[in-house]
Amino acid sequence: MxxxxxLLIKNIGMLVGAYECAPGVLRGLAMNSVPxxxxxxxxxxxxxxxGFGPMSDAPSEDGFHQVVDACHGWLFPCFCDSHTxxxxxxxxxxEFRDKIAGMSYEEIARRGGGILNSSDLLNETSExxxxxxxxxxxxxxxxxxxxxxxxxSGYGLTVDGELKMLRVIKRLREVFQMLEIxxxxxxxxxxxxxxxxxxxxxxxMLIDELLPKVAxxxxxxxxxxxxxxxxxxxxxxxxxxxAASRFGIRGKIHANELAVSGGVQVGVEYGALxxxxxxxxxxxxxxxxxxxxxMPTMLPGASFFLxxxxxxxxxxxxxxxxxxxxxxxxxxxxxxxxMRFVASLGCIKMKLTPExxxxxxxxxGAAALGVSDMGAIFPGxxxxxxxxxxxxxxxxxxxxxTEPLITRVILKGQSLPA
Length: 418
What we know:
By secondary structure, this protein is of the alpha/beta class. The chain contains 15 helices and 16 strands. The strands form two sheets. Strands 1, 2, 3, 4, 5, 14, 15 and 16 form an eight-stranded mixed sheet that branches. α6 runs parallel beside α7 (234-246).
């Protein structure tokens, strides 16, 4: 008798990232290994992976309500994007022209542009409009193979604006239940215009007024701070992370994008889940991260778009550390949620192997999201996978970074509409 909620995927040319149990965080040399099984099947019960094996031992199709023939395409775990800002209003292609003309990210920010431009637009935009725009972006990310994603606030920079953003993210979680979504409160993204010249007072407002409201409404899984030159200091970051910890909310940090800021060290000190950007990292940061539970996360899409240095991912892995890569999807410095492109940049610009790059956007991306049941294929994991055309090798996924290879995306056991 057929079960009403069982799915069989058969004739998989190569099953990629298949483990007997959850792999946990991959570090150092372990990042250069991806277990694969040729000519395979995967069984799904409800929204979870039930099992897998070679086609020679495939179960009878009679016990499944749906059978998907992979036609010898490759099956991958979905991407896990641990750093995005995809709730925003409008766009910033005017600044794109400024960058072409030679203006730096810092110069645009100093003249009142950048994040503050996005803040102005967001505070003039309704919650419904923000939700609809973010929904379109989220659907595009899912169609590209992303199954888990973090979304930050940080363009409100007022009490009402930040709460509006976080409520939009809450609505996205409720509507897009096939995706695993994490919400991050990033009120400390920049100082709101109303507090210009009064940064200390702005930090006080975040801690004393806004953070308690966020916690009371259970709107955020994490709290983030842009700890960098021209933004928030190490001392201010420590105050915000300390306040968040009193509400039981773990930190994530923007660090070392513009300068060696001390953000990595304060993140490690306060047990941040991840420290992100790291375009400028030294041996001191690597030593600080060694042995910690904080995931170093690099955002090569921002390096590509801004023309700034790429993070030293090769050095981090060679030091025995883990590494995650994420999209940094946002309107100003990385207007793309393509995790395939992120994985390709990891190889092309950061000299990661295809195996390291894939692990950075799947297994370790899941860890940087605080998600333990995604990013790999194992019994009990969410059945969030994508199927490609037949590939000549694993490296082809990053090599052919614009070729439309993905033929089907399955999120928590449900196929996305074609």
